[in-house]
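**Fold in tokens:**
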Amino acid sequence: MNALNIFSLKGKTAIITGGAGLIGKMQCKALSDFEASVVVCDIDIEKSEIIANNLNADSFAIQLDVESEKSITKAKNAVLSKTGRIDILINNAAVNDVFANDTSALEQSMFENYPLELWIKSLNVNLTGTFLCCKIFGTEMANQNKGSIINVASTYGMVGPDQSIYVDENGEQKFFKSPSYPAGKGAIINFTRYLAAYWGNKGIRVNTLSPGGIINGQDEYFIKNYSKKTILGKMANPEDYVGAVIFLSSDASSYMTGANLVVDGGWTAW
């Protein structure tokens, strides 16, 4: 056995939802570098096409709305007509709450005031979207008796949010991490275990990747507060998750299923 070869993705087709996002575009680049045919799937087709055009020649973009069974089925048919197979699915598409301004963010993010419509929207994308993509794309993997599904969760799928990291240098609570995101990400971790057990006899491995917070232009107070919570004393860069996603996508993790790979700088270790 050549240890390097087990990381190769040559000849494999990888679907990445949320492919134009912060983590997603790095996942696309990484899998392309390891010779997979990458399907960049995102609601933003213009960004997706730009990303796909900078990957290997076998990669391409598809507009995808993870809330729509019709959109996912259309994407599945397009992928199969072009590559004939689906080997890897990374469910990365997700949303965070969007508030009108700082005042409404503080008021509406409080659990007592949290709007039902934001709860529903978050779960529709983050949880139901993952369910639908697993169901529609994963069924094709079951038909070919092989595949790897990676569901992206979060440290907040394992532990409750520390609301103190959203307090600025003046002691002012800027907002609260609202309930829908942790609820959805926690559900993804156990949904992954369900699928791993259900499709194990079909040769499909299903694992969770739980990343920590990524530095992305946040306020300095937040970066400082967050970094203090990690053993490594810093937030992640998108590149910090490249190794984990290649490992889970490839035969390097061939005896791993139903697991939750935590890459969080030590956030959940103490």
